[in-house]
Design brief:
The protein is an alpha/beta fold. It has 10 helices and 13 strands. The longest helix has 25 residues. Belongs to the ROK (NagC/XylR) family.
């Protein structure tokens, strides 16, 4: 049994993984706030998922992988600056190894989701995971291994300016990709009190609301820009769109592909790259980040290098 924990700002999603990426047990608990609560709740989620799996006949616990926001030192098992969880610096791997009695590996949440998407989609070669969540970030996987870059910050594309006439981003720049394609920013621009603001936005656009149509078009443009950035800078074979915004499903991915095809029609260079054919949607029916965390817990600490 391999455990995977996706620790988010509000909940811990824990899975017990068997062979062939089969989820044998699953549990969800609140994340908590501050080091003591985060560690205790992560342990509780892990034990609950393991108990469900054990009742189904799973073998003893082999490893634990964790995906968590913030700056992660995967080798040391330390997470820093996870502000939404109240963590300035936490030796998360050490604490949970002591509590669970199994090796623990910690990975950035987007990197963990990248690994999960890569394996669930049965990809090979190089992939970028474009995470359109509250904010925007990307993760890279090459030949089955996460690629973090020289200093661990590969994929921080959300703060690349794409609209010089746009709004001021929280980072201080103007018109960052995150301000046009991040779910949090789009929801704030739309306003209202709908439980699912992006669904409400899309429904209003379908009904002909002009402001909704403009915001939706901006989101499509931003997502397409993210795809272009990832392919033009890293030349990955596949870009997988995930994160909360991806739950819009075909309403998102079809429009992004259409926008990429529009751009290709006026640019022979972009046409040659076959951008729209290289875009996939994350599997929406699987706990991708938690599965990726479980896989990260068993990945040897060797970095893959890009093919020349």
């Amino acid at each position: 049994m391999r455990l995977g924990l996706d620790i988010g700002g509000t909940k811990v999603d824990a899975v017990a993984l068997g062979d062939d990426l089969e989820v044998l047990g699953r549990a969800r608990v609140a994340s908590g706030f501050g080091p003591e609560q985060v560690v205790a709740n992560a342990e509780a989620a892990a034990r609950q998922a393991a108990e469900v799996a054990a009742a189904a006949g799973a073998t003893p616990l082999e490893s634990v992988g964790i995906g968590i926001p913030g700056i992660v030192d995967a080798e040391a098992g330390v997470v820093r600056h996870a502000v939404n969880l109240g963590l300035e610096q936490l030796e998360l791997a050490r604490h949970l190894e002591q509590r669970l009695g199994a090796p623990v590996r910690v990975e950035n949440d987007v990197n963990a989701a990248s690994l999960g998407a890569y394996h669930l989609l049965g990809l090979d070669g190089s992939m970028a995971y474009l995470n359109l969540g509250t904010g925007v970030a990307a993760g890279f996987v090459n030949d089955g291994a996460v690629w973090r870059g020289a200093r661990g910050t590969a994929g921080e594309i959300g703060h690349i300016p794409v609209d010089p006439t746009g709004v001021i981003c929280g980072c201080g720049q103007v018109g960052c990709l995150e301000t046009v394609a991040g779910g949090g920013w789009v929801a704030r621009k739309w306003g209202g009190d709908a439980a699912l603001p992006l669904v409400d936005l899309f429904d209003s656009a379908d009904a002909g609301d002009e402001r909704a149509l403009a915001l939706r078009a901006e989101l499509f443009e931003g997502a397409a820009a993210g795809v272009r950035i990832l392919i033009l800078t890293a030349d990955v074979e596949t870009v997988v769109i995930g994160g909360g915004v991806a739950n819009l499903g075909a309403r998102l991915i079809d429009a992004v592909r259409d926008r990429l095809d529009e751009l290709a029609r006026v640019s022979p260079f972009l046409s040659s790259l076959e951008l729209s054919a290289r875009v996939r949607l994350v599997p929406l029916d699987r706990p991708v980040a938690a599965i990726g965390a479980a896989l990260a817990g068993t990945v040897p600490e060797t970095e893959a290098s890009w093919r020349s």
